[in-house]
Amino acid sequence: MDVIILQILNGLDKGSAYALIALGLTLIFGTLGVVNFAHGALFMLGAFCAVTLNRLLTLSFTTVDETRTDFLGNPAKVETPYVEAWFGPEVGGWMIEWSVPLAILFAIPIMAIIGLVMERGLIKHFYKRPHADQILVTFGLAIVLQEIIKFYYGANPIPTPAPDAFKGSFDFGVLLGFDPLTIMYPYWRLVYFLFAMVVIGAVFAFLQFTTFGMVVRAGMADRETVGLLGINIDRRFTIMFAIAAIVAGLAGVMYTPILSPNYHMGMDFLVLSFVVVVVGGMGSLPGAVLSGFLLGILQSFASMPQVIAVLPGINQIIIYLVAIVILLTRPRGLMGRKGVMEE
Amino acid sequence: MTKSNITRRGVLKTGAVAGAGVALPTIFTSRAHAYTNEPTGSTVTLGFNVPQSGPYADEGADELRAYQLAVEHLNGEGDGGMLNTFSSKALQGNGILGKKVEYVTGDTQTKSDAARASARSMIEKDGAVMITGGSSSGVAVAVQALCQEAGVIFMAGLTHSNDTTGKDRRANGFRHFFNSYMSGAALAPVLASAYGTDRKAYHLTADYNWGYTTEQAIKESTEAIGWETVNAVKTPLGAGDFSSYITPVLQSGADVLVLNHYGGDMVNSLTNAVQFGLREAQANGKDFQIVVPLFSRLMARGAGENIKGIFGSTNWHWSLPDEGSQAFTRSFGTKYGFPPSQAAHTCYVQALLYADAVERAGTFEPCAVVEALEDFEFDGLGNGPTLYRAEDHQCFKDVLVVKGKENPESEFDLLEIVEITPVEQVTYPPDHPQFAGGSLGSCNNGA
């Protein structure tokens, strides 16, 4: 029993990331009709927003400390971050320690700009083109973004720790009446899950309860009619693209303490996120969220040694197996609507 | 009107004769060459095949820095580094056999096929007479086999799998770096005294040749001191998130986790293990422990403070007090501003050892170089007295057992040396079961 609870918990954080990326993908597909293969790269860029803020906050000046020596026996150079010099070690140290949550504020405008530039600069030229063209151009864009990041940040993962307050793990087992230390769950993963729920809730509320959201939903259902009513639906869809970019970016920012970011982390998530979208049903936002969590949890069950012992390699293919089964039995996915990609 | 004398038959005849004439000199010259890429001018070209992209790019960059430093020193520039401390005095700082050393580089991308392609191009296009480098055992084994076929010497860089000088050993290939067996033999006694002999171990193992031999070596050496192996699970290379592999560990009844991972995988799996509270956990009435058989400073930097107090083994560390290590750290640190990694050290030493062997053999001919390296004993290169064993082309020297430092004094000061395990303790017979199934064959001069 405890093993099962543990694997469900384990699936939650990965499922949260899948759900957030798949939500953005579905938003873009539902509004603009574009299959965006650069969405994983947006997730990766979000993670590097956190890395960049951390680097900015730890920008240091060098002083020579005559009392100590470095590895060559010369007087040691001591690096002091500017923020510690400006705001005092207390506040400066706090800012560096909390750089990941602070990066949320940093990432929102940056991801919005990246999203707008991407949509206006490149993707809008591909609205009328076949999906294959869209996939090629966005995939190419993803590779370009990756290589840019690799050039500036190197190929190795960059550790970006969570604030000290969220280090360590929470003993779920005791809460549920098991022995201590049977079900441990890191605090930060709990934070990530809650954060994902808040973001998902905010996106749904935005679409459901604002006039803007209503227009967008109407546009998703029938773009032409909404256009005929004199509403500039294109501009709203552009803004939705930026929102989708922000959602992917925030998913990346908060994921950095779980997985040290590297340049190809986006690709690792992208392919799976597409499967998530397909399983959930193309164009269905609740479907994307639901299947994100579902596949995250399934994947973590499939990685259990007991399961691998029976079915070697199952952890690598479980998601695709599920996708095949679902597409055979429910060709539109779990919550797919009629008429999407079926003309 | 002129009458043309050209006939079809005539053209064919002339063509055949001319073709043979054009081909003749190359036939003669290639016969005149006793071996592949014999340097005829005033320079000699070495091929540095390192990962410049991919997950081991940081190691690769450090290896390249070391090679550039070695070339400087061989050509008599800079402060000479380890040339001054090397026990063999054959090298004069005037290149190799009086020829100025030049080099070409290739990118292995940490992939066997890409590594073979770049090595082949350096041999065939650039005329490299020796290939060296690499930061993965998969790559090392593949490139070593290629060099054997092509008839050039391969001086392996960072490769730790037993296979490189075990079942996949080749006569033209040489390894200075230590191996999985040596890690196990050096670590086990230290683990026994630190954690006791009644322990239950759980292995997570990278799913390729290095992971397999490391798991086997650590398993056999820890079982010999009385530990029990509860489970050993293979993890895919570059799994990213290891949490679903980590969480079953606490329920398995194990009280030690052995991470047979390297590079980015090790950084991620160790970070996950710490996040899931393994280091604070208690199992079987003891503190839970984590062991990382192969440590590097570059990895330690990636893992941050998670590394503190964790035991592992390493080939070399810049803080070693011997003359050779200090000379190398000084020239590397002065040139680049930070101390060299173990990858940089082994590559620098390999370049020097090759040059020295050529100098002593008096020729670049691969078989003569092989002979000069076989059973060569040397000192002053940072690991104490060392033997290049003839039977398997493996270096035998002391091994360092290290621990993540609790209170580092600088960003480079991440590992502390716990013990220098003497060479006798890590030496094994050439036909040891962990190395069985391979044979060197005979050396190949190529061409």
UniProtKB/TrEMBL annotation, chain A:
Keywords for this protein: Amino-acid transport, Cell membrane, Membrane, Transmembrane, Transmembrane helix, Transport
Cellular component per GO, a single term: plasma membrane
Highest taxon listed in the record's lineage: Bacteria
One GO-annotated biological process of the protein: amino acid transport
Keyword Transmembrane annotated: yes
TM segment ranges: 16-35, 42-64, 102-123, 190-216, 237-258, 270-295, 307-328
CDD domains per UniProt: TM_PBP1_LivH_like
Membrane-related topology note: Multi-pass membrane protein
Record's subcellular location: Cell membrane
GO MF: transmembrane transporter activity
Coiled-coil segments on the chain, per record: none
InterPro entries membership: ABC_transp_permease, BCAA_transport_permease
PANTHER family reported for this sequence: ABC TRANSPORTER ATP-BINDING PROTEIN, BRANCHED-CHAIN AMINO ACID TRANSPORT SYSTEM PERMEASE PROTEIN LIVH
Family stated for the protein in its record: Belongs to the binding-protein-dependent transport system permease family. LivHM subfamily.
Protein name: Branched-chain amino acid ABC transporter permease
Organism: Rhodosalinus halophilus
Automatic annotation (TrEMBL), chain B:
Gene3D superfamilies attached to this UniProt entry: 3.40.50.2300
SUPFAM superfamilies: Periplasmic binding protein-like I
Transmembrane domains' residue ranges: none
Swiss-Prot/TrEMBL GO biological process terms: amino acid transport
Keywords: Amino-acid transport, Signal, Transport
Membership in a protein family: Belongs to the leucine-binding protein family.
Name of the featured protein: Branched-chain amino acid ABC transporter substrate-binding protein
Phylogenetic lineage: Bacteria, Pseudomonadati, Pseudomonadota, Alphaproteobacteria, Rhodobacterales
